[in-house]
Amino acid sequence: MPERDFSALFKPLRIGRITAKNRIMAAPMGAYVDLNGHLTRANSAEFEMRAKGGAAIVNLGETVVCSETGQAHMPMIRMDDPETASSMLPVTEAIHRHGALAGVELLHAGNRANPKYITGNKIYGPCAMERGMYGAPVYEFTEEMLAGIAEKFGRAAALAKFAGVDICMIHGGHGWLIAQFLSPIDNHRADKFGGSFENRARFALMVIDSVRRHCGKDYAIDFRMSGSELTEGGITIEESVDLAKLIEGEVDILNVSVGTFHFVKTSLHMFPPAFIPSGENVKYAHAIKQAVKIPVGTLGGLGEPELMEEIVSSGRADLITLGRPMLADPFLPAKLMDGQHEEIVRCLRCSECTSSGFVPYVPFALHQLRCAVNPWIGHELDYFTRADRPSSSKKVLVIGGGPAGLQAAASAAEQGHSVTLCEKSGRLGGLLLCAEHLPFKKNLIEFVKAMKARLRRLEVAVRLETEVTPESAAAMSPDVVVVAIGAEPFLPPIPGIDGENVVLSVNLHKAELAGGRVVVIGGGLIGCEESYHLRVAGKDVTILEMLDDLAKDAPFQYRLCMLDYMERAGVKCELGAQVERINGDGVDFIDKDGLRRSIQADHVVIATGLRARGKEAEAFRKSARVCSIIGDCSASRRIADAVREGHFAGYYIQ
Description:
Blueprint: E1 13-15, E2 18-20, E3 24-26, H1 41-52, E4 57-64, E5 77-78, H2 84-96, E6 101-107, E7 123-125, E8 138-140, H3 143-162, E9 167-172, H4 177-182, H5 197-200, H6 202-215, E10 220-226, H7 237-247, E11 253-257, H8 267-270, H9 282-289, E12 296-299, H10 305-313, E13 319-322, H11 324-328, H12 332-337, H13 352-355, H14 380-385, E14 395-399, H15 403-414, E15 418-423, H16 442-457, E16 461-464, H17 470-475, E17 480-483, E18 487-489, E19 502-504, E20 517-521, H18 525-536, E21 540-545, H19 556-569, E22 572-575, E23 578-583, E24 586-590, E25 596-600, E26 603-606, E27 610-612, H20 614-618, E28 626-629, H21 639-651
Parallel strand pairs: 3-4, 3-13, 4-5, 4-6, 6-9, 7-8, 9-10, 10-11, 11-12, 12-13, 14-15, 14-17, 15-16, 17-28, 19-26, 20-21, 20-26, 21-22
Antiparallel strand pairs: 1-2, 18-27, 23-24, 24-25
Helix pairs in contact: 1-2, 3-6, 15-16, 15-21, 18-19
């Protein structure tokens, strides 16, 4: 295969008086700092991994410039606390030692401030509101107060500069304070800060001027903006182009996003789940780039290397900002440079990471990042500092080639162990292969491909079409057995479930449904994904779900997007449905009102979950001195849990 050309992506980029070594920035994704708002050793390792992975700029994430009035959630880096500088310096040094630039994102939450976390007694915004998003009243900023907030932005930038930050990103988008002044949705003022576009942009200019005064003309300033708020009455691309023209002489680069947190569905375009096409936000960056002469960055679902190269080489944008792809694989840039394309772990765009702390829309905030396909996220410090390395190479047998088994084999081999992986089927991937017919799940299959390439490099002995019994496992004399034999479909005791018109959801990837009417029994994540796909393929689809809602176990943002796409596609649903029987013509059920009803169907899909193969797995306990049972055979769960368990089982073998 000819070598791929990523020369545009790895061309240095001049940003004001500094130079980024390539066109990839690790996006601000939030630093989960201590309760004082100070960075920790774990933060240092987190950001160092992205720098070591080859990103040109590593942004430390959201910071609050005024904790008295501007904090949205916990924890945020406190840039109004002088003690923050001493915690930030080791982090910027960790970034610099890998040739990357350190960035930070400055913001004030405005009317989105959370009264639980601010140290003042009042929430302020561009205009007074009887009730803000947390129920408390919002008071209008006076002109004098706005001058003070702009000053705090400047002081925060000065602290960042002192602590080794090379480029400050002023957050002027996503519904935070600067965007609130820019947006007609929030700004109804009649003074010099409201009304005309020039007046609504006045506060943004005050902030930029303050940062410039405090940091000097040579200091690099990045300005993040929403190219469009994607909602009626909000900021439009035309106004964003005008803003870009207005500030281009004052900042060094523009970072173009979309949406506003005021309208949660627009956040789906800030961090597009898998249903939304890759690169759909690039058009906003391109429109702004055509209007200005300074560099312009773009973001949003851009983890495909060929797409990133095309965006830069075609001149649609100058910088690619990667958030979730740098979680899925922090070494993505380095792998591209080194020609290791096949080992890149692609972001699934499953929203596992962005949903975990998406307050106030989720009941609990995790306050730490997690990734479905990268078990190191949240454990980066151990990557750099682990002291208890294995004293000798062990003979490791991994049984099962699903996500848990693949990860266990790779992690064990990377620690120097001799690993054999046995899979009873003819392919690696396990139940992930059941999604290979779903276009929006393509990166699951790319994950399998990347893991196979990794196992080849690590010289793991892979034996396909090899069924292992406890006896044959013991006969191989392994020091460690890792059991990852997966789960099997759970079949509820429904009369007719063995009928010829019945298809298990795990078999849809190899089934042909000739008829046009389909009933899907089970409205969990898999049932919903398959229903959407069948509807897009032209089938008349009805879901029967016994609970009161769909896909309750799915990550919040992914679920929100999926349900929206299902509704627009015309997937029908009966909640609270108790299925009585399946017959040759369809399904009989009792609806939520207790009425007996029937739905005609040519095919019935069973998507009622999986049953862990726990009893079969436990039989391997005596096959080696050490036995780990991981993944779905322990308990049916998400890919994130399987990958993490596989990593722990393989990496920490002694």
